[in-house]
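Possible race condition, two jobs.
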Amino acid sequence: MNARIIDDERLAAVALTAGDLSRYSRQLLLPEVNAEGQRRIKAARILCIGAGGLGSPASLYLAAAGIGTLGLVDADRVDASNLQRQILYASGDVGKLKVEKARSRLQELNADVEIVSHNARLTSANATEIIAPYDVVIDGSDNFPTRYLSNDVCVFARKPNIYGSVFRFEGQASVFAPHLGGPCYRCLFPEPPPPGAAPSCAEAGVLGVLPGIIGLIQATEALKLIVGAGETLAGRLLHFDALKMKFREFNLRRDPACPVCGDAPSIFEPIDYEQFCAGPPAADWFAAPDGLPSISARELKQKMDGGEALVLVDVRERYEYEIARIDGARLIPLGELESQMNELPHNGILVCQCHSGVRSEHAARLLQEAGFENVYNLEGGIDAWSIEVDPAVPRY
């Protein structure tokens, strides 16, 4: 295990105070940590990409452990639906910038930790600059473009990238650091999944405690890297199934043909990750004969108020329909759509709707392929309806 993540010059400038000795006494008692390890923790700079479900527990425990500098990258505001799992925030924080509330909460926990807020979305234009000052990166992002971006920049900069992801009742974590041995994220996932093939938490849901478990695994790996203790998850993928309460481990290998960390790399700087993860146009994936018209929530409201004859087809699951619905919508879950198509009017206007517009796009294309002509997709789904038209419809 390499404890040289913190260079000797920076470590020499760090001393433990009497307050440190008292506050971190339980860590100092560990022979694998002791005073030198706590000095390394105090000298360390860790960046959390995302201050949400994974970033919340990771940053809280890293601040409690005495990390010297903790960076947070997030451009979102707190939403009520975040509070079920993003434990950095309280009910009164809804609508406020996450990085500002996170900084306040972390400083309240440990005023000795320097909190650096990056109120921005990580992009190809800013990632190299943002990541440069930090020793370790914790990737708590929830989208593929950011994951590939953080991986590539960390490989270029020779910085450990601690990966975590959650989905429904399952989570996984690993450490990607080719310079320390093992693969990078691209070795595990050479290509992103087709658009819409991997639903987000907003589409599929997530057990609230699950990000806490995975986020704490990420924080644990970060501390081990900084202190130089134990074996990290480099070269291993840890999978957790909360329903079965089981952990499984998979061995990972570096791909010699990887375009970023392989033997003959072809990517040496950030690329356009939105384009990389977009894949072929959706029409190619679903073989739709023509382009797919869409309609905004406000436009749909105008048509409904104007008495236009249309059928709003809600393709979400029944439990989602019980949470929130648009008056007059007909529920046909996506998995049942093909068997119930014959019940829909071929000559009328059909508007497909789901939670955020991904499943309904698929549904609309299936209807197009079946010969329905006037089919529209509701942009942003019922979530956009709640924001733009009727705030009384609950968001989830």
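Job #2 (started ~2 s after job #1):
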Amino acid sequence: MKFLSEYRDSALVKEYMDQLHKVVTRPWTIMEICGGQTHSLVKNGILEMLPKEITMVHGPGCPVCVTPLGIIDEAILLAQKPNVILCSFGDMLRVPGSVKSLLEVKAEGGDVRIVYSPLEAVKLAKENPDKEVVFFAVGFETTAPANALSLVQAEKEGVTNYSILASHVLVPPAMEAILSDPESRIDAFLAAGHVCTIMGMNEYDPIVAKYKVPVVVTGFEPVDLLQGILMAVQQLEKGEAKLENQYARVVTREGNALARSVMNDVFDVSDRAWRGIGTIPMSGLEVNHRFAAYNARNKFHLADTEVKENPDCISGAIMKGMKKPHQCPMFGTRCKPEHPLGAPMVSSEGACAAYYHYSRVPQEV
């Protein structure tokens, strides 16, 4: 495990930690949205060093974790077809579907390949004109532009044997779903900086105004997260609710207009099911009518299916900030990275994986 003192910004870390201990006077619960932020908090021992009044809970910002069983089963169905090459980022291969995982399909002879960019999948389609190449397009607003661009590129080059199976989700609707839950006890949010590099910050203004909660856009380094936590606590202690930008070196209020433009050209906003949470209205992106020929659901006539989740997995409660990973009876026993019950134990951004690999002393809720 790394320790905060190892960082070149350790003086700033100490300063922010000292300020937190001075300013906090009562209990506050803060949710960091992004799984990358969760891993940084746990891996670097930040949770153990915060004042006891501050409880960090972990949100649904892991794209692998929130991909529902039904869509994973769709990917598995496609990967089992003899004329299909199914491409995916590596984390998705070990996520369990209702019966098996993509990794098991690959072991059984399915043509499942790990790629690092959807454009690699487009290239693969050009090189294999006798095969259908499907890219399993999972992610938040950060990966959507590149996935959209792959369809634009395929159309431009006349590549007709390429399609994507889209499972894109959007952050603000998930935040609203969490805040609308009667059991929610979130006092403030740390918003994901990389999402805001694309989308900007304007989408968070209505959430702050409606729910009266501070939202602080932060980065992922320990010093970023500590400063973001301090900014949120300072607001809470003053009874304020504002949108602030800790990650100003990267994030602007307007975001990346070009990236949003290509997303809007390719995707329509749609309802989306979230694993462990349920369907959140207008929280996803689906390939629009213009690019319907590149939509794997259309090309392979896939039917929407709802699959019951493993009742022993409490991933939904974890991703809504109601439980911590170590509070699951299956954590570290029946559920481990080698044989996970749910995606949060598999993904490199999953909260359960972070606690399993790095946490030493659980922080009680």
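The first strand starts at residue 28 and ends at 34.
Logs attached separately.
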